[in-house]
Amino acid sequence: MASRCAAFATQFPSLAHHHNHRHSSPCCDPHRQSALSWKRTLAPEFLSSSASQGKHSCGLNRQTRSVVKCSAQTRIATNMAPGTPVRPTSMLVVGATGTLGRQIVRRALDEGYDVRCLVRPRPAPADFLRDWGATVVNADLSKPESIPATLVGIHTVIDCATGRPEEPIKTVDWEGKVALIQCAKAMGIQKYVFFSIHNCDKHPEVPLMEIKYCTEKFLQDSGLTHIIIRLCGFMQGLIGQYAVPILEDKSVWGTDAPTRIAYMDTQDIARLTFIALRNEKINKKLLTFAGPRAWTTQEVITLCERLAGQDANVTTVPVSVLKLTRQLTRLFEWTNDVADRLSFSEVLSSDMVFSVPMTETFDLLGVDQKDITTLEKYLQDYFTNILKKLKDLKAQSKQTDFYI
């Protein structure tokens, strides 16, 4: 049966659905499958190429704005065996080694979940996940046949994966996610949590954001019980981008645009995610998580300078340069992926605010806003700890000096 589900995972048109329990060896009735249909109104040349492929497609079009139309018709598959109910605490985390993924894993383990982590085969094993108490399984979203085995015995999937910078965005973030969602549908996953990007529905010209929005719609149409969480930005990302270069007297890269981002601590994101996971009223809802305040790049750099006690060597990249670079990279097929990522940089470098009021969300989750970490507190804790360690190392080095 595993081979049959693997075959379904590689064919986008249909996958079977199970009722409120799952089998350790799932059965799929090929005559009664859930038919997921995906329709987009695009330029004529895309429609002809998509129809010839006979598969679902995100329909990325770099030249035209597209209108999304999604629909799903679901027929319930027949259960061929009594089945064995899975434990509600059994969870698969996809993207477990990432900035957010590892915090999801730690939170899940702390709350008593049996955590399985889907990790791509890699030279450096994810031993830290095993040390924490999670189970690690090797699979790859770009290889759909590897997905079904990871879902056996799983109740909930938390998907915080994204493609690596060196690979095409579409391979993992669209084709891999479609395969994962359809396989989850076929194997009766009870709940699916998907992390997306704030304002992804407003920027079809940016491939990554369009793919996130397409995936949201695909998940909504799949019939799976799900929660979609849009995020604005991670505080953790600011450490490598600003804090470390300032401490090491290296260049800090910024732009001349007044973009404001409400960064959030990934530990808070993980905590709120599990509160939402336990609240049945939030099923099939779309939430957006944002930090207490939206910051410009220059404000973040100024804060880091004050906390570090030293000035930053700032190199400003004009938005016009990003746009020109993107246009040039579009001229060559082998640089298309670079152009796609630069388009995302353009959005982050424009006059936008990546933030939303959180009062209603906090009320829905029963959370006090005072318990959410501010960027000032997060960076202050980081610099206090790192400067103390540097001071201790300096003191130890003096103790080992010998004078004759």
How would you characterize this protein structure?
The protein has 404 residues and is α/β, with parallel strands linked by helices. Helix content is 41%, strand content 17%. The protein is built from 14 helices and 14 strands. The strands form four sheets. A seven-stranded parallel sheet has the order 6-5-4-7-8-9-12, with helices on both faces. Strands 1-2-3 form a three-stranded antiparallel sheet. A two-stranded parallel sheet has the order 10-13. α1 (2-9) crosses α6 (169-186), α3 packs across α9 and α6 packs parallel to α7 (207-222). It is globular, with a radius of gyration of 23 Å. The model is unreliable at 1-57, 61-82, 324-343 and 398-404 (pLDDT under 50).
The general outline is globular
Q: What's the end-to-end separation, in Å?
A: 77 Å
Strand tally is 14
Structural class: alpha/beta
Helix content: 40-55%
Beta-sheet strand percentage? 15-25%
Strand order of the largest sheet: 6-5-4-7-8-9-12
If you average the pLDDT, what whole number results? Answer: 76
Helix and strand run: HEEHEEHEHEHEHEHEHEEHEHEHHEHH
| Oligomer classification | single chain
Cα gyration radius (Å): 23 Å
**Low-pLDDT windows of residues:** 1-57, 61-82, 324-343, 398-404
How many H/I helices?
14
Instruction: Give the biggest sheet.
Output: 7 strands, parallel
